[in-house]
Amino acid sequence: MPTDQVSGGQPARGAESFLTVPRAHLKQRLAKQIERGLELVNREIKSDEALDEFREVYLRWNEDNASLIKRSYTTAGLRRSVSVSGW
Questions:
Q1: What is the pLDDT of residues 38-60, one digit of tens each?
Q2: Cβ atoms of residues 40 and 58 within 8 Å
Q3: Cα dist. 53→20, 65, 72 in Å?
Q4: In a domain, 85, yes or no
Q5: Is residue 11 included in any domain, yes or no?
Q6: How much is the pTM?
Q7: 4 in a domain, yes or no?
């Protein structure tokens, strides 16, 4: 088992996690994801078709968030602990 983990894939106490991308790049990407999330929150849903479309867009956005976090940090336990919640 890698030294940065304990059983269950959780980061070991004191395990350091480092960014794999420049901080400014991650900050910019996070701001973009937050902006996309706010657009979702403010979206009006007036039909079943609009709800279906919303679900698809939301799931893609949520997966993008998890992927961004997983790609941006070195700690394996931290990367694995990010889950994508289903609808």
A1: 999 999 999 999 999 999 999 99
A2: yes
A3: 33, 18, 29
A4: no
A5: no
A6: 0.69
A7: no
